[in-house]
Design a protein that fits this description.
Layout: E1 3-7, H1 11-23, E2 27-31, H2 34-42, E3 49-52, H3 61-68, E4 79-83, H4 88-97, E5 101-104, H5 109-119
Helix pairs in contact: 2-3
InterPro entries: Bact_response_regulator, CheY-like_superfamily, Sig_transdc_resp-reg_receiver
Organism: Acidocella aminolytica 101 = DSM 11237
Protein name: Response regulator receiver chemotaxis protein cheY
Length: about 120
């Protein structure tokens, strides 16, 4: 079963995303910031897709993406930024760091699952 890594400092958002993804048949790993995400990747978790918020304490989404791209097992893992930010500058910054895509919060469950399924179909 494919695993999705969800990083967000909002416990409510993590619970909501986890519920949607688990309901669609995905395993879900979570973290409250980019530092926790890097720790999980360094410890050997190999998610099929990563969903990350931009604005988080300790290590924000852009910093997480830059660090994740340095880890061999995550170098080509799709990373989707899920944020309330809608500005083009932040989007360009995320893409330059290595983000694969961008969804604006709150993402509709069908929209979220459509994007995730394109990157990682459930078997």
């Amino acid at each position: 079963m494919p695993t999705i890594l969800v990083l967000d400092d909002s416990a409510t958002m993590v619970m909501s995303l986890s519920h949607i993804l688990k309901g669609a048949g995905y395993e879900v790993e979570t973290g409250m910031n980019g530092r926790e995400g890097i720790t999980k990747l360094s410890e050997g978790i190999k998610p099929s897709v990563i969903l990350t918020d931009l604005n988080m304490p300790e290590l924000d989404g852009i910093g997480f993406i830059k660090e994740a791209r340095k880890i061999a097992s995550a170098r080509y893992t799709p990373i989707i930024v899920l944020t309330t930010e809608s500005g083009g500058r932040k989007r360009d910054e995320a893409r330059a760091a290595g983000a694969s895509g961008w969804l604006t919060k709150p993402a509709e469950p069908n929209q979220l699952l459509s994007v995730v399924k394109q990157l990682c179909p459930v078997k």
